[in-house]
Every structure is written in C-alpha cells, then in structure tokens.
Design brief:
The complex is a heterodimer of chains A (141) and B (275).
Chain A: H1 20-23, E1 55-59, E2 62-69, E3 72-74, E4 77-79, E5 82-87, E6 90-92, E7 94-96, E8 102-104, H2 115-126
Antiparallel strand pairs in A: 1-2, 2-5, 3-4, 5-6, 7-8
Chain B: E1 2-4, H1 12-28, H2 30-44, H3 59-77, H4 153-160, H5 177-182, H6 189-197, H7 211-229, E2 269-271
Parallel strand pairs in B: 1-2
The chains are: A alpha+beta (141), B mainly alpha (275).
C-alpha cells in the first residue's frame, strides 16, 4: 500500500476549503444551532472542514480518506458534497443529521461536528480492526 | 401475563433462564435476524427521509413492538422468561451485578474491550458476532471508559416532566419528550447509555450485546412512566405527516400495527413496580 505519512494537501489554503457542514445541506439546515449540535465532538482545535480536493491522512496508523461526492442523492434529497469516508480503503458509512452533525456506523449514538472527527473516533474504536461492508437487509426478524 | 422485572431483582435461576434462552436463540440463528432487522432500520432511518425506528416520533412504539417480538421468541424457548429492565439510574457502575460472570459478564480487557467472562464471552464458543461493522468476532464493551457518564435520575425526571410528546420537524432536532428521551437533545438519555456501554452497543450493530434488550426495556418503562405523569398528553403527530408515522399510521416492517395499538403496555405485560 502506498503509505502516506502526513496529510496530502489538496486544497490546503483554508480560504479555498469547502466546509462540508455548511454546504452539504439544502434542507432543514438551520433547524438547530451549531452550539448544540455536537456535545461529543472532539474539542481540540478549530472546526475542521474538508478541502475541496478531499482529505487523505494517516491517523494512529490508519489511512483516512474523505472525498466529496458532488451531486449525491440521499433518500431522494439532492445533497451536494456528501462526503465518503474510507479507512484503509474500506468504506465507513456516514450519516448526516439535520443539524449538520454526523454519525457513523461505528459510533451511531453520538454525533460529531464534522466527518474527520467522526472518522478519527472510528479509528480509535476499531483498534486496528478492519471495517466490513455493513448493509443489513430486510428488516423483518 | 408477562411481568418485566428489574434485572437487579432476578434470582440466580431467573438469570440463568434468561441467558440460556438468549444462547438458544443465538444458536438457532434467530438472534442474529433481530440484530440484522434492527440495523436495517437504524441505517435507513434518516432525518431527511422516511424514519420509523429512530429519530422519529415512532421511536418508542416501534421499539415496544420490536421488544415484544423478541420477548415472544425468548418465551418460545422458555415460557417463564421475560425481558428484564436495566435501571441505569440505580445500577450505574461496572461493578454492578449486571456485569458479573453469572449474568452478562463484564469488560475484562482494556486492550480490545473483549468480554472475557460470562455466557457471552467469545471463548465460550456460543456468542460469535456475525452481524457487525468490523471484522472482530468477539463481544466488546468499554463500560464508562473515557469519562463517559450514565444519565442521572434528576436528568430522567427533567425529561419525564416535558409535557409535549414530540414536535416538528419530527426528527433528531425536535423539542419534546421523545427526542429528549431518545437523547439527540437535552441530557442525552437513551443515546448516552449506548455510548457508556460502548463497544457493540455504541455501534450500528448494537443488539449484538444482550444488554440492548434490558436498556430498551427500561426506555419503554420510562415511556409508560411519562404517560402516567402526563395523562393529558398524547402521541404526536395525530394526523398524517410526511416521512413519519402518525398515531394511526402503520409501522414498518409489520404493517399491521399502529402507534395507537401500542400505547398501553398493560395489554402485553406489566412491570414489577406495578404489582
């Protein structure tokens, strides 16, 4: 695997960054204040945003890649810039909340301020384990 | 009539009967069908689209029906078994008897969160995780690690005092009792307990941990207590509303039951506190 030891700076200029949390939403985005959005999000540092080219970095030995999927459709809603997260090449399913916070399949009962915080929390929980495709079907026990 | 008891009041024999019934459902594959069914809803319930099991007014009736089905499956194995509830406002430490080797087992290993003792320890050969988000096949918990806190009785009482059941936009940003009990707003009740247990309970594959049922049995009990304290408050929305299930709307996946059918738990079971 092509090991990357530090963030690959696609759109490193902060001014050029597209803040996913602010742009990904075209419905219900102002339903709640950002102050109450994410009590469990990482507190360190300023709020991270996703450069327009995406994020590709190594955190605790795991490669985190986040790409924006422009024009994605989710549940019938047009949501430009829906991010996709991969950890060591395996998809980490991500869901956006109406207040623009995020949950993943690894931490489904706490919210994060942005996709990179959610991805890092997942890396910590995985403790080196690989993600599996997680696509439950049906719904009838 | 089924009586649901506090897990702390179960006799040794009742604990054994409950865990044996769980192991039997696991052995026959029935258990993992419930894990899969729950996860399918957790993944598809969306603030931006249809939602029925989570982040929606029907969070409470949906889980009531889901638990009833699961309890019926347990009772097919052993008619004497009922779902115990875990009152985490009282039994709130990793040293609680809930996590002892004769019941659910505990967290014995910080390195990987693996549950090493009790009936659900991987080494026992009867509880391999098959429906999970990652490749680890052993049951995991973290029980309060990283400073996680369980909700307090005062926090529960503050939510039980909220007179309005739910409100627009009927999702994870709503005001009202349901969303505060579910925990997307306010002190974070239901969600916070999932996070405190950690491991599988914190993930989208949460029912892999048998404490899922005991946690939700208590959430269900809190709903009935809210009804008792707020007798004039009704389920909302009362009329058809986009993306969510109103009082007389059909609940998926059953499609033959409505929130109205599930308002009174005494049609199905009572709690030991009501006797």
């Amino acid at each position: 695997m092509n090991m990357i030891t530090r963030r690959r700076a696609f759109g490193i200029a902060v001014g050029a960054a597209a803040a996913v949390g602010l742009t990904a939403c075209d419905k219900g985005g102002s339903a709640a204040s950002s102050a109450s959005a994410s009590p469990n999000a990482e507190a360190s540092g300023p709020a991270l945003s996703i450069p327009t080219g995406g994020i590709d970095e190594v955190y605790e030995g795991r490669r985190i890649q986040i790409t924006l999927d422009p024009g994605a459709h989710h549940d019938g809603q047009h949501m430009p810039g829906m991010p996709n997260i991969k950890i060591d090449g395996k998809e980490l399913h991500l869901m956006r909340n109406a207040d623009n916070s995020w949950v993943t399949v690894v931490n489904h009962y706490e919210t994060f301020a942005d996709p990179i915080s959610a991805a890092k929390a997942a890396v910590r929980d995985l403790q080196g384990a690989n993600l599996l495709p997680f696509a439950p079907t049906g719904g009838t026990p | 009539m089924t009586v649901r008891k506090s897990q702390s009041k179960l006799t040794a024999e009742e604990k054994r009967a409950f865990t044996n019934a769980l192991l039997e459902l696991k052995r026959t594959g029935v258990y993992d069908r419930y894990v899969n069914a729950h996860n399918a809803f957790l993944m598809s319930d969306s603030d931006f689209g249809d939602r029925v099991g989570h982040r929606a007014p029907s969070f409470l009736p949906w889980h009531r029906r889901f638990l009833l089905d699961f309890e019926a499956a347990l009772q097919k194995v052993d008619p004497k078994v009922s779902l115990p509830y875990w009152d985490w406002t009282v039994d709130r430490t990793p040293s609680s008897s809930l996590w002892a080797a004769d019941f659910l087992g505990g967290t014995n290993r910080a390195r990987d969160g693996q549950v090493l003792d009790g009936p659900f320890a991987y080494a026992g050969g009867k509880w391999a995780i098959t429906v999970g988000v990652d490749a680890r096949t052993y049951l995991r918990r973290t029980l309060g690690a990283g400073g996680a806190q369980l909700p307090t009785k005062d926090e529960v009482n503050s939510v039980l005092a909220m007179p309005v059941y739910d409100s627009a936009p009927w999702n994870s940003t709503s005001g009202g009792f349901r969303n505060h009990l579910e925990g997307w707003r306010g002190p974070g009740l239901h969600n916070k307990v999932h996070v405190w247990v950690g491991g599988h309970m914190a993930s989208a594959a949460s029912p892999n941990d048998p404490v899922f049922w005991m946690h939700h049995a208590f959430i269900d009990m809190l709903w009935s207590e809210w009804q008792r304290r707020n007798p004039k408050s009704a389920y909302l929305p009362a009329a058809p509303t986009a993306n969510v299930v109103d009082f007389h709307g059909k609940l998926r996946p059953w499609n033959d039951v409505t929130p109205a059918d599930l308002m009174d738990h005494r049609k199905f079971y009572t709690f030991d506190t009501e006797r």
